[in-house]
Design a protein that fits this description.
heterodimer; A: 174 residues; mainly beta; twelve-stranded mixed β-sheet; 12 strands; 0% helix; B: 169 residues; Jelly Rolls; eight-stranded antiparallel β-sheet; four-stranded antiparallel β-sheet; globular
Chain lengths: 174, 169
């Protein structure tokens, strides 16, 4: 029996770049999408970065938004924010110690259903050497596409350093 | 190479307050439940019982946006988080639930769930995310899961619960 968890596509950033990463022609034969991310933001010199989704199935910022809770290092320190862009917090950025990448998981259930607004579940973390302030941060939230379109393409943006990776998986229901 | 992540079953509840996965194969190490759901009431809470048993569930959790940390003890079910309803039109919650060592008859059963309850655009207070670590203080192998709404709300058409098995390599 084939695995129900199948790799659809992978993109590894070859050279540090602000270019977008586009997954197009996503097969409509699975039930859910799972996306694994290894990401270090290129454009920011901050000690934290974020990953943006700038387009889902041809729908851009006006139909995408984000709600999230963040946890900071040094104890339970939370904040809830709402934004009109799908910026998924937190990952590492160029202000962090060299070599540290943030990791994240995105889950898009029932992505082919053309009768539902799409919820994008995500959990992400950034990390750094333990003696740095806010060495660890976690972001947990949902991105939203307030349209019923089936997810046929996803564009990730915000620039990443070489070695960053995004891998798209399909989960079947058969 | 044998598959290690298999589809087991799917439920699409609509107009009902509960449903069950029965005869769960005992050939995997862990279970994963993926959820996209709504209810036809204002909102509700997903509750799960193993083997029809209604005792000895407990949990610790973090809940935002209220930024609340809490515990539940001696509960009749494992409560996995909020379900969207008419409070937030068109919003569907998304949950991932891990049930560890479900077929091992020598250990109490541990559950970790991550729930997302999105709100309409621009709304901060009603958005929720819940993280729960739960325990079913029972060593019985889990052969069935009954899942429903804690407040009796009915599932909306389009709700889907997909159950997968993870096998050790």
């Amino acid at each position: 029996m084939p695995s129900a968890y199948t790799k659809i596509a992978n993109f590894t950033v070859p050279t540090t770049s602000a270019d977008s990463i586009v997954f197009s022609n996503i097969p409509q034969t699975y039930k859910h999408l799972m996306i694994q991310v290894l990401w270090r933001q290129y454009q920011s010199t901050s000690t934290w970065g974020f990953l943006s989704i700038s387009d889902v199935a041809g729908s851009t910022a006006s139909n995408l938004y984000n709600q999230y809770v963040r946890w900071l290092g040094g104890g339970l320190n939370t904040d809830t924010q709402v934004g009109n862009n799908m910026n998924l917090f937190y990952f590492n950025a160029e202000g962090n110690t060299s070599g540290f990448f943030g990791t994240g998981t995105l889950f898009i259930p029932d992505y082919t259903n053309s009768s539902k607004y799409k919820t994008i579940w995500y959990t992400s973390t950034k990390n750094d050497t333990a003696d740095n302030t806010y060495a660890g941060m976690g972001g947990y939230g949902t991105g939203q596409l307030d349209q019923n379109k089936a997810v046929t393409s996803i564009t990730f943006s915000n620039g990443a350093v070489a070695g960053s990776q995004i891998t798209l998986y399909g989960l079947s229901d058969q | 190479m044998p598959a290690t992540f298999d589809y087991i079953a799917k439920a699409s509840p609509s107009g009902v307050a509960a449903f069950s996965f029965t005869n769960i194969p005992q050939t995997y190490t862990d279970l994963v439940l993926l959820i996209s759901a709504r209810v036809t009431s204002a909102y509700d809470i997903t509750a799960m019982q193993a083997n029809g048993n209604s005792s000895n569930y407990s949990a610790v959790y973090y809940e935002g946006s209220g930024n609340t940390v809490g515990t539940g003890t001696a509960e009749i079910s494992f409560r996995m988080g909020y379900i969207n309803g008419t409070n937030h039109p068109n919003m569907w919650n998304a949950d991932i639930v891990h049930i560890f060592n479900y077929a091992n008859a020598n250990v109490y059963k541990t559950v970790i769930s991550e729930n997302r309850y999105p709100a309409v655009k621009g709304s901060t207070q009603a958005f929720q995310t819940q993280f729960k670590a739960g325990l079913w203080k029972n060593t019985a192998a889990i052969t069935s899961l009954t899942i429903g709404t804690a407040n009796g709300g009915s599932y909306a058409s389009g709700s889907v619960y997909t159950l997968y098995g993870i096998r050790k390599a």
